[in-house]
Amino acid sequence: MPLLSNIENEYAGLIKDDSLSPGLIAIRDKVMQEQRISDEDALLLFESAPLSFLSVLADTVRTRLNGNKTFFNRNFHIEPTNVCIYDCKFCSYSRLIKHRGEGWEYTMEDMLNIVKSYDGKPVTEVHIVGGVMPQYDLDFYCTLFRKIKEHRPDLHVKALTPVEYHYIFKKAKVTYEEGMKRILESGVDSIPGGGAEIFHPEIREQIAADKCNADQWLRIHEIWHELGKKSNATILYGHIEKYTHRVDHMRRLRELQDRTGGFQTFIPLKFRNKDNQMSHLEESTVIEDLKNYAVSRIYLDNFPHVKAYWPMLGRSMAQVAMSFGVDDLDGTIDDTTKIYSMAGAEEQKPAMSTYDLVTLIKNAGRTPIERDTLYHELKDWSDHSFDEDTVYRGYVELPILN
C-alpha cells in the first residue's frame, strides 16, 4: 500500500477550501494556474501553511513536471580526503591539518583503484568531492579526471564543488573562466551542488566564513552553464538560519536558473549535529524537513527536479518526501560516502542495490525510473518483478540498457 495512504485523495478537498487565509488562497490559485510565487508567498508558506496543504501543492508541481516518476541512478563516490584547510562550523566530516592523523588523504593511484574496482559493474556515475588541501591542485585533478576517462570513457564524472574550484584556481593563478575550461577539457561532465550552504552573508559568515562566498559560488556555476554543461544546487538548512535566509538562497538560485537553465536538481541538505562545532543546536523536525522540501518544490518552478538525498534523510523519510515534491532519490552509492554518516545521519552505511531502490519507490506508490546523471531515462522498473534467483545485493545484479 502506498505510503501516506494516498495523501492527495485524503486532502483533495483542501485545495478547494476557502476557509484558508486569503494569502494561502492566492498562493493556491497561482500554483494551480502555473504562475510563479513570490518571496513573500514562500515566507507565508513556511510560516503559516498546513503541512497537508503544502503536500498537495508540491505534489501538483511535481506531477506537472515529472508525472509519477521517481528517478535514481547507479553511482559511487570518491572522497579524496577529509582533511581540510577550512573550518566550517557545521562540518563533522573534515579534520583540520593539525589533526590530519585522524583523517585520510588518497593518492591518485588510490582513487584510480577505486574506479577500477567497479570495472564490469553497471555504474554510470562517479561523484568526486572532499576536503580542500594544497596537494590536490588543478594539475592533480585534471590528470586524475583524464585518467578516469581514459580507463572508462562511458563513466560520467561529476566532480568538485565551487569551494574546491575557487581554491585550486586561486592557487593556480587562473581565472574562473580559464579554470573551468580546463576542467571541462580534462573530462568532467557535470558538477555537484555542494558548498552552497546558506548564501546570505549574515549566516554564511558565522558558519563558513573562510571559503568562497555566495557570489563566487554562483559565478562558477554560471560559467559552467555558459560552457553548455549541467550542475546541481544545494541548501544546508535547519541550523541558525531563518526562513528569510532560505528564501533569499532560493531566490538567487532561481534568478541564475532564469538566465542559464543549467541547474538540473535542487537538493535540500539537513543539518546534522553530531561531532561538530554546532552540536549544541537541535536538529530540525520531520515536519520541518517535509515543509522545506515542499516549499522548495513550489518556489523553484524552473528547476526540473528536487532530490531527497536518502543517506542523509533515511529510507523511510525519503519515501515520505516523495509526497512533498521530491522526484529523485540519488543513487545506489554503495557505502562510498562518509560525509553524512560521520554527522549522525540515519544511514551509517549508505548503500542500496537496484532492488532496494526500486522496492522503496514502488512502496511509495511511485514509478521507479533508472536514469543517467543528465536524466536520460535508462529503464522503467515499474513492471519488473524480482525473485530470489535474480536478486543480488550489489551492482552486478542487473544490466544497464543501452
TrEMBL record:
Single GO term (MF): 4 iron, 4 sulfur cluster binding
Name of this chain's protein: Aminodeoxyfutalosine synthase
Catalytic activity: 3-[(1-carboxyvinyl)-oxy]benzoate + S-adenosyl-L-methionine + H2O = 6-amino-6-deoxyfutalosine + hydrogencarbonate + L-methionine + H(+)
UniProt-listed Enzyme Commission number(s): 2.5.1.120
Keywords: 4Fe-4S, Iron, Iron-sulfur, Menaquinone biosynthesis, Metal-binding, S-adenosyl-L-methionine, Transferase
Function: Radical SAM enzyme that catalyzes the addition of the adenosyl radical to the double bond of 3-[(1-carboxyvinyl)oxy]benzoate, leading to aminodeoxyfutalosine (AFL), a key intermediate in the formation of menaquinone (MK, vitamin K2) from chorismate.
Binding, [4Fe-4S] cluster: C84, C88, C91
List of residues binding S-adenosyl-L-methionine: F90, E197
Cofactor-binding details, from the entry: Binds 1 [4Fe-4S] cluster. The cluster is coordinated with 3 cysteines and an exchangeable S-adenosyl-L-methionine.
Family: Belongs to the radical SAM superfamily. MqnE family.
One of the GO biological process terms: menaquinone biosynthetic process
Gene coding for it: mqnE
Translocase recorded as keyword: no
Cofactor(s), by name: [4Fe-4S] cluster
Enzyme class: transferase
Highest rank taxon of the organism: Bacteria
Species lineage: Bacteria, Pseudomonadati, Bacteroidota, Saprospiria, Saprospirales
Residues of the Radical SAM core domain: 70-304
Pathway: Quinol/quinone metabolism; menaquinone biosynthesis
